[in-house]
Design goal:
Strand content: over 45%
CATH architecture of the largest domain: Roll
Low-confidence stretches: none
Structural class: mainly beta
Largest sheet: 6 strands, antiparallel
Number of domains: 3
Order of helices and strands: EEEEEEEEEEEEEEEE
Number of helices: 0
Mean pLDDT: 86
Length: 188
C-alpha cells in the first residue's frame, strides 16, 4: 500500500529497492532553506543490516501489510527476547537486534504489538511511553528551574537522555519510546 513518506512510523515494514525493511527511527528535518525531508533508519528484515534513507515529504513508499498480534514480554535469553502470544499462549523468540536500542525499554510483563509477515516476526511496537527511574544525574541547583537548559541523566536501563534541571536522582519520569526523550514527571 503506497503511503506518503512523512507518515512513516517506527515499527512499519516497507519495501524499498526490492527488499523488506523494518523502520527503527525517523527524524523529520525542516531546514531553513529548501523543502522538508524525512531521515529514516531501517533494518533489512532478512540480513539484519542497517541503513539510513532520506525521502522528501511528498515522496511515497510501499508499506507492507503485516499482521499485528498482541504479545507480552516475558524475559531475555542470551540474544533472544521471549514474548508470549496472548491469544494462544505460544512463546515467540525474537532476536534482540530486531528492536535495536529500544529493547532497553522492555519491562517484565509489558504488553507490546509484534508485526508478522507470513508468520515471521518482523518488528516489535512498544507503548508510546514508559516510566523509568533516573539513577544518575547532576544535583538540583536552586533557582535553576527557570532556565531552559537540560542536563544529562542515566536511566535504570542504562540509557542516557537529557532531562530538565529540576529532576533529581531517584525520581521516576515518563520517557517517549519513539525518540528516547523526557516527557514529564511520573505521577505517583
Amino acid at each position: 500500500m503506497k503511503q506518503n513518506a512523512n507518515l512513516i512510523r517506527p515499527g512499519w515494514v516497507i519495501e524499498h529497492n526490492g527488499r523488506q525493511w523494518s523502520v527503527i527511527k525517523i527524524n523529520l528535518v525542516q531546514p531553513g532553506k529548501g523543502g522538508a525531508f524525512i531521515q529514516v533508519e531501517m533494518r533489512d528484515v532478512d540480513t539484519g543490516t542497517k541503513t539510513n534513507e532520506r525521502w522528501r515529504t511528498a515522496d511515497t513508499v510501499e508499506k507492507l501489510m503485516s499482521e499485528e498480534r498482541d504479545c507480552q514480554y516475558l524475559y531475555t535469553e542470551g540474544e533472544a527476547l521471549i514474548f508470549m502470544n496472548t491469544e494462544n499462549y505460544d512463546q515467540i523468540s525474537i532476536p534482540a537486534s530486531v528492536m535495536g536500542e529500544s529493547a532497553g525499554f522492555l519491562q517484565d510483563n509489558m504488553m507490546v504489538t509484534v508485526n508478522f509477515i507470513e508468520d515471521r516476526p518482523i518488528s516489535v511496537n512498544l507503548p508510546p511511553s514508559v516510566v523509568m527511574e533516573v539513577v544518575e544525574c547532576e544535583p538540583v541547583v536552586k533557582g535553576q528551574t527557570v532556565t531552559s537548559s537540560y542536563k544529562p541523566a542515566k536511566l535504570e536501563n542504562g540509557m542516557r537522555i537529557t532531562i530538565p534541571p529540576f529532576i533529581a536522582q531517584g525520581e521516576k519520569i515518563v520517557v517517549s519510546t519513539a525518540d528516547c526523550t523526557y516527557v514529564e514527571r511520573a505521577k505517583n
